[in-house]
Records
---
Amino acid sequence: MVGANLITSLQEIRDFRASQGRRYPLWLILLLVIMGTSSGAEVTTRPLDFGARHYQVVSEQLGLIATRLPSDTT
């Protein structure tokens, strides 16, 4: 399981996005980007591809209910 300290730290980051249309918590998006870049994806080459490949396992481990992944534009 991903370290609870990382998730806790990400959850403490203030989310400046407009609340309208916000479907995913900021900490989850940041976590997927961190995990994607840690697995070798470059920021400019879709780090959320990691999420697409591993979202089922990540969501099960974190107890997430979301059925869709954040898009690249998110």
---
Amino acid sequence: MNENVFGSRLKELRQEKGFSMKKLSQELGISAAAICQWENGTTDISGHNLVVLAKYFKVSTDYLLGLED
């Protein structure tokens, strides 16, 4: 089974802020389509965007990737 831990954590963090994918995309300057694809696990995130998300949500990249809780 291919578990999309990153996508699940991204979605959870986004929803905790009360943001739609569009709102998050506007905040970060990343397309809403990319955010949707990351949450659904249909594409991988670049290292740069991973760091952008980690800094924005004030979590570690390891947390986003499911390497730590």
